[in-house]
Amino acid sequence: MAFGVTKSELNAWKSKCAQGEIAFLTHYWLDPRFSGVKTVTKVGCCDVDRLQAWCRANGLDPAYIHYREQYPHYDLIGKKQVEILKKEELIDHLQRFKLI
Predict the structure, then answer these.
(1) Which domain holds residue 48?
(2) Most buried among 36, 42, 62, 63, by the most CB within 10 A?
(3) What is the pLDDT of residue 94?
């Protein structure tokens, strides 16, 4: 279950994805499979080749890309989420969701 993101933020993420850009959307998230994890960052891009290349460049396995939705994306959680948000200089995501 996702929460903590506005409709305009979601629409901006979808728009960037649809344009073939790498887009980041962080939100609160609860999933019983991941105890203690409270946030996820969806890294999306409708240009699947570009998203796969982004995953490989960041040491992530493209096999974990979610293709079932209209907007292909990779879910970042935990330490790797924080590491990549810092690398991408998305400090506002880190602060807003109290990841640092």
Answers:
(1) 2-96
(2) 42
(3) 95
